[in-house]
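Inositol-1-monophosphatase: structure tokens wanted.
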Amino acid sequence: MASPNLHPMINVAVKAARAAGSIINRAALDVEAVRISQKQVNDFVTDVDQAAEAAIIETLLTAYPGHGIWAEESGREHGAKDSEFVWIIDPLDGTTNFIHGFPVYCVSIALAVKGKIEQAVIYDPSRNDLFTATKGRGAYLNDRRLRVSKRIRLQECLISTGFPFRPGDDFPNYLRMMTDLMPKTAGLRRPGAAALDLAYVAAGYTDGFFEAGLQPWDVAAGSLMVTEAGGLVGNFTGEPEFLEHKECMAGNPRVYGQLVGILGKYSKFASAGEKAALRQSNLTSAASNAVDADGTPGGD
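Answer:
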């Protein structure tokens, strides 16, 4: 049951998320029977994504027929086209995990009002974990108020991420980011569902998160969870207007600042000077890793 003190729009979103969750849980009992198609290499969609999305949209538009819809699978074809209220939906974040029976996936629903996220629900159907947030009213897991972690030393911190997996993703840049960051942390994790990654930063289970290539429906709900739990969220250079930048970084305020310091130079929004310095350091490290004609390591 939704808590009676929740915002009415959150109650409707919770109802929608639970309807999608029950479809996902039923399908998870026989994941081999799920029909899978490929949007592009390593980017999958199933009939479960589509059924869950349809259930969410029907629930939302029954309550709010004048609202707009922006959903991962059906885009903007449903709902009002010119509403200031737009529901941003990912019906099954972590589809690749789901089709393998790896139980890390969720439903993500956010409401943007005039472009700003004001309501958020993330539902993990395999754990029955319900994350909710309303702008200005805090973030909750089930009925427990969430706060980001208090860790301030990066070497004690657990950071989650998402690896690039699509053709055209910048794998070398990502490997450089990991090489730079990993030795400075207590560990790097790649659970495989960005919305849950952000919810876990809000809950303090991880201390920070970063990923490139994300779409608005991946991060809309989770970004409000983080800020309502006292954290910060933005792109890799720390700019808060990140929703359509395809870069997302989050953390408690102290960790976030340190992540910007380490990863900001890898951002596509980094300054020309930072990009030039990064290119130079890459050339230097490539030279030091080269092998001389006599077979000894070069670069000196």
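The chain has two domains: 8-145, 154-286. The first helix runs from residue 8 to 28.

Cheers.
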